[in-house]
Fold this sequence. Notes:
Layout: H1 11-18, H2 33-39, H3 46-63, H4 75-79, E1 84-88, E2 95-99, H5 105-119, E3 125-127, E4 136-138, H6 151-167
Antiparallel strand pairs: 1-2, 3-4
Amino acid sequence: MSERSAAPGGLALVESLVNTLDIETGADLLDTPEGRYRLGVTEAGLAEARELREALRAALLAHAGHPPHRTVTPLDTLLARAPLYVTVDDHDGSARLAAADTGPLPSRIAAAVAEALVAGTWTRLKACQAETCHWAYYDRSPAGRGRWCSMQVCGARAKMRRYRAKEQ
């Protein structure tokens, strides 16, 4: 939906997972073998991936100052099953958090969130405020106050609704 460039670093994985569902049309990439393969989701892990996707969407809506779109399992509950550990590079001494098990999607998401938290980019990943969208996007605006995934689509629709409401 968005014309924006992908989120930086591991946040691209979070953004990709959230954006597997097009709320407006109901199309879900996780329904396809290609969509699952792209994210490393097995048929057995499908329910867990969907639960994680909606918990992430709720967190991204919160980043944009909006209430959750529905009741979801709290993200911290889901990520508690994906332990992280500290790795230290022998050559330069740099440290980072890494997933204890890099295979499962929740582990990779936990590592991406931890990386973004350290980098200060986690709260810049948001969900579009349009109720028929909630697409994930990375807010690169200087003030960090972006509201829509696309000004040309969701932003224009919201502004047109506001304009029409004034005219009545």
